Amino acid sequence: MIDQIKSLAQAGAATVVEWRRWMHRHPELSQQEFGTMAFVAERLTEMGLSPRTGIGKTGVAAIIRGDIEPDAYCVALRADYDALPIAENTGLDFASENPGVMHACGHDMHTASLLGAAKILTAMRHQMRGTVMLIFEPSEEMYPGGARMMMDDGLFIGLMPNEIYSFHCLPEMDYGHVGMRKGRYMASTDELYWTVKGRGGHGATPHLSVDPVLVASHIVVALQQLVSRNASPLMPTVFTIGKINDVGGRTNIIPDEVRMEGIIRTFDPQWRLECHRRIRQISEGTAQAMGAVCDLFIDEGYPPVVNDDDCTQQVHDNACAYLGAQNVEWLDMRMTAEDFAFFAQKIPACYFRIGIHQPGTPYANLHRANLIVDERSLELASGLVAYNALQALNNRIKKK
Questions:
Q1: Neighbour-count burial of 233, counting CB atoms closer than 10 A to its CB (0-12 exposed, 13-18 middle, 19+ buried)
Q2: Domain 2-186+303-399, what fold?
Q3: Were 79 and a residue from 5, 110, 123, 381 both cysteine, which residue would form a disulfide, CB within 3.0 to 4.6 Å?
Q4: Residues of 157-174 as b/e, b for ≥16 C-beta within 10 angstroms?
Q5: Which parts of 153-297 fold into alpha helices (H)?
Q6: Do the strands 305-307 and 74-80 form a parallel or antiparallel pair, or are they unpaired?
Q7: 72 vs 83: CA distance, rounded Å
Q8: Considering only CA atoms, which of 106, 128, 149 is closest in space to residue 343?
Q9: Distance between CA atoms of 351 and 179, rounded to whole angstroms?
Q10: HSE toward the beta carbon, residue 342, CA cutoff 13 A
Q11: 76: β partners
Q12: Would you tell me how many other CB atoms lie within 10 Å of the CB of residue 355?
């Protein structure tokens, strides 16, 4: 089977690269992916599938039913396809034609690879047991996230997958390598929005004002104890205030308000809620003690990504068979977040990584204007994703 899949992946590699380059040239922001949705649906239709479009506004799904026991088991494969508000600086011949928007997180690579896997699976459906669900998700980069939007819009009505898999490219990892982690892998994420209200006035008469800049500064410092003194050393936690704006201040003007934005990320649901409580308590209490008022809005985002042990072991074993054990790594936890977590809360899941770095060359991290993908990774991903799906179906149906 591996030789057959690798042959199909190699035969379709140029086409998959072409698909990726089209998406790279035509990136679309979250909830605006109408062109990408149409492109993906057209490719699936060419494969003889009947895609559903408009799920969660701009999402796509399709079903590949094997010729052997199609109702016995279902494995879902997911890719995301929204871009970021970043001006591209790669110098590529197929650079973004949409000013200020770029596939700087590799979602074009994810989607093209899943289309490549779909092409392999449709070619092998006569020997495929069970069913594969293809999920092309919009809006991963923006709350509330495409996963939840698609599920709320009936993605799984009529067919609930037994397992679900997805991957993300990893610039730190060389091409030819993949990695995964059992259990807790990626953090929850919540966005925090403060409005610190004081009383503005002349900078030369601060005693007649309540300076919200000073109050906000004290809040920033006080909140650092959340990680340094409140979080268990055994519980990874990240707190960041990334933006501070005054409203109407100047060199000699004390403003009425200061607004701040930040994030809190961790792995434990109960500690996550306790973080919310402590952030509110410290923020409001510090402001009150200094004669100001603090309004805090907590926008609850994605839960942690928790990989199912059995699904992850299966990906590991299949990757070893497909690539060789020397090219498969166990990974550490990451403080990045992913709305794939919503799928993983409902279905046994594995979210893994595929290396995209060309050895011997500098690399740029995700969300950077100069991110480069080693396009050989598309052929690898297409084949590995297809092989893992077929093996998952075979193994689970045999056990049943």
A1: exposed
A2: Aminopeptidase (3.40.630)
A3: 110
A4: eeeebbbbbbbbbbbebb
A5: 212-223, 225, 269-289
A6: unpaired
A7: 36
A8: 149
A9: 10
A10: 20
A11: 133, 164
A12: 24
- Residues 364, 381: Cα–Cα separation, whole Å: 20
Strand 190-197 and strand 293-300: the pairing is antiparallel
DSSP code for 101: -
Q: pLDDT band for position 396 (50/70/90)?
A: confident
- Give me the residue spans of the domains in the chain: 2-186+303-399, 190-300
Q: Report the alpha-carbon distance of residue 164 to residue 339 in Å, rounded.
A: 13
Instruction: Please tell me the distance from the alpha carbon of residue 220 to that of residue 386, in angstroms, as a whole number.
Output: 48
Do 84 and 105 meet the contact criterion of CB atoms below 8 Å apart? yes
Alpha-carbon distances of 29 from 23, 32, 86, 141, 277, rounded to whole Å = 12, 5, 10, 9, 33
Let me know: does 284 contact 234? Beta carbons within 8 Å: no
The CA distance from 152 to 42, in Å, is 24
Residue % of the chain over a pLDDT of 90 = 96
pTM over 0.85: yes
Closest CA to 358 of 370, 380, 375: 375
The residue behind tokens 């966005």 is 191
Find out whether 288 and 280 touch, Cβ atoms under 8 Å: no
Residue pLDDT, tens place only, 245-269: 988 889 999 999 999 999 999 999 9
CATH of domain 190-300: 3.30.70.360
Q: Looking at the predicted structure, is the pLDDT value of residue 400 above 70?
A: no
User: What are the pLDDT digits (tens) for 310-340?
Assistant: 999 999 999 999 999 999 999 999 999 999 9
H/E element, 300: strand 293-300
- Please list the alpha-helical segments (H only) found in the chain: 2-25, 34-46, 107-123, 146-152, 212-223, 225, 269-289, 309-323, 340-346, 376-399
